[in-house]
Amino acid sequence: MGTPSGTATKVHLLRHGEVYNPAKVLYGRLPDYHLSERGRAMAQRVADVVADRDIVAVVTSPLERAVETGQPIAEKLGIEPGLDEDLIEAGNSFEGLTFGVGDGALTKPRHWRLLRNPFRPSWGEPYVEIAERMRAAMERARVPAAGHEVLLVSHQLPIWTVRSAIEGRRLWHDPRKRECSLASLTTFTYRDDVVESIAYSEPAADLLPDADASFSAGA
């Protein structure tokens, strides 16, 4: 088989590292949620793993946890990181609350109206809008970096939503089945303007909360 024609460009979507959140609230877009000790170690691990990649731009969501995840990566690559508002976490009406059956927001009748349409979803930013803004951020980074690689730091729901859109899957889903762990990379390889393949990797798999007992829970 011959070599594929056209320019190959890679867009890596990196989910931020673990956040210090001892109260276990849904922090969403709230300010002042920073990486935990484990989260900083995750960011450094990713920096070490991608150090020899042809990454010419690092762009992050404006939220602290994303900026802090991108910083050591940009430093390792010798790049000044940028910000893109379109990489931000999804808007959610349950921000600041604990969320669960029996112990959180779902036990309060005043919140039930927000759950009327899980396919949109009715409690937050529509999936279609999330996918559109994420695609826009990916294009803004990809086009000037044609032939190279870019790394964008975002959040689990936006990353999974845009991946689902590009793969042609329905956007509503079971959150427990997202393939997007902390500090994971979802890599889109473009051939010219078309996504040729999508790959997933977990550079910090051994640092995930269930994998490494050397970090205390919630650190």
Please give a structural write-up.
This is Histidine phosphatase family protein. InterPro entries: His_Pase_superF_clade-1, His_PPase_superfam, PGM_Phosphatase. It holds the Pfam family His_Phos_1. One of its GO terms (cellular component) is cytoplasm. GO terms for molecular function: phosphatase activity. The protein has 219 residues and is α/β, with parallel strands linked by helices. It has one domain: 3-Layer(aba) Sandwich (Rossmann fold). Helix content is 26%, strand content 17%. It has four helices and six strands. It has helices at residues 37-50, 64-77, 127-142, 156-167, and strands at 8-15, 55-60, 82-83, 149-154, 185-191, 194-201. It has a six-stranded mixed β-sheet, with helices on both faces. Helix 1 (37-50) packs parallel to helix 2. The longest helix has 16 residues, at 127-142. The protein is globular. The model is unreliable at 213-219 (pLDDT under 50).
Summarize the structure.
The chain is α/β, with parallel strands linked by helices. The protein has helices at residues 37-50, 64-77, 127-142, 156-167, and strands at residues 8-15, 55-60, 82-83, 149-154, 185-191, 194-201. It has one domain: Phosphoglycerate mutase-like (Rossmann fold), CATH 3.40.50.1240.
Estimate what percentage of residues fall within beta strands: 15-25%
CATH top level label = Alpha Beta
* Number of domains as seen in the coordinates: 1
Q: What is the approximate shape?
A: globular
Q: C-alpha Rg, in Å?
A: 18 Å
* SSE string: EHEHEHEHEE
Instruction: Give the distance, in angstroms, between the N- and C-terminal Cα atoms.
Output: 51 Å
Number of strands: 6
Q: Could you say what the CATH topology is called?
A: Rossmann fold
The portion of residues assigned to helices is 25-40%
What order do the strands of the largest sheet run in, or round the barrel if closed? 3-2-4-1-5-6
Number of helices: 4
What would you give as the CATH superfamily? Phosphoglycerate mutase-like
CATH architecture: 3-Layer(aba) Sandwich
